Amino acid sequence: MSPPISPERVLPTLNADGTRNRIRPRLYEGRLWRARRLVAYGLMLLFVGLPLLRIHGKPAILLDVARREFTFFGRTFLSTDGVLLMLLMLSIFVAVFWTTALVGRGWCGWACPQTVYMEFLFRPIERLLEGKREGQLRLDREGGGVRRLLKNALFLGLALVLANVFLAYFVGVAALRTWVIEAPSEHPGGFAVVLVTTALVFFDFAYFREQMCTVVCPYARLQSVLLDRRSLVIGYDAKRGEPRSKGKPQPGRGDCIDCTACVTACPTGIDIRQGLQLECIACGQCVDACDSIMMRIKRPVGLIRYASQVGLETGKRTPLVRTRVLIYSGILTLLLSVLLLVGGRQADADVTLLRGIGAPFSENSGLVTNQIRIKIQNRGPNAELFGIELTNVPGARLIAPENPLSVGRGEQRTTSVFVIAPIDAFTRGERKISFRVVDEHGFHGEFSYKLLGPERGGSS
User: What are phi and psi of 437, to 5 degrees?
Assistant: First the structure.
């Protein structure tokens, strides 16, 4: 029995009978494609180089999930930095809103790693080995043969390289180098992670491809919320193009000659003349295709172009900067300012003073003893020795079983100290003191604390 045929439009990646429609876009090397190529190569270099770049002795970006440390451009956030992480996430979300309101899905078409690597690394290799669109379609019908095997072997090698670069953002270059150089038996867990990541990258770019944008990625489905009618999108000028003629322009008809160049050039397989669709990634390949046809038939370019929906309907240029964009800009500026201000004041160590467990104090022979727990979180790039000193209490003594306290990089340790002060140092059962905590690399902090004692203390 033959498969059922859908009477309505299905996804561009699916045929009417539910089978996979493999998208083999035709390349038109227009002005937008050349600009995107420069951006893509720059982003590739940035992607590969960031894990190697060090700022203030730290990786430019390191998302160490296992240790719950997140380093961005020389500043390390810990899992306990709830306020900073919240500000960072809010800034990212508002930046997404701002970008989409301003330039639609410009991120998808120009900077998303899926698009960048698919269109400017994997597809060029595919065209080199299998030929242009017609040759690839023929191989789809007749079988791939040696050329497709060679292509997949190269894809697998590239997937391995990209997987290692990707993992460098999460485990660091040093750990990754160990995984690569040493035998897999020395680190089976790391080797398994590399294999799984390589397989996923290969599956994505060799088989799944544009379905990542049209089926998996949720960003397309958020367009209806994030876009408005004045956002910059890829659009077809129906007023100028309709009614269509076939083959060449005809008197009294529009400029569109129904050549379908825009359709064959689209990496997600849509017909932009049907209006804005969630599968459109705003890459502009249909713009280059249509412009090349317009120049050939001696018509003005721009039948398909970047424009707002209002601009396409009215024929007038609409300003991109508007109230919504200004509001997003203000919120984003405020969030980033607060993030930089709070993050800039962050010291290389967090010190917390806690009261000891048990009785709040003990009294013996005119002396009052308080137990204090000192918790130190080391944010610095190296292990440190933190010295603890007691200040501004004449006659008081500090007993610290472990002083200086050794704290590893990114670690947190707690030590108990005892402060013994004469009873005369207390007023109404209290005495304010200060601890000074220092390390060998310049950290210096004064931390106040309230000692407790008997109500019958003397004057201070």
Answer: -115, 125
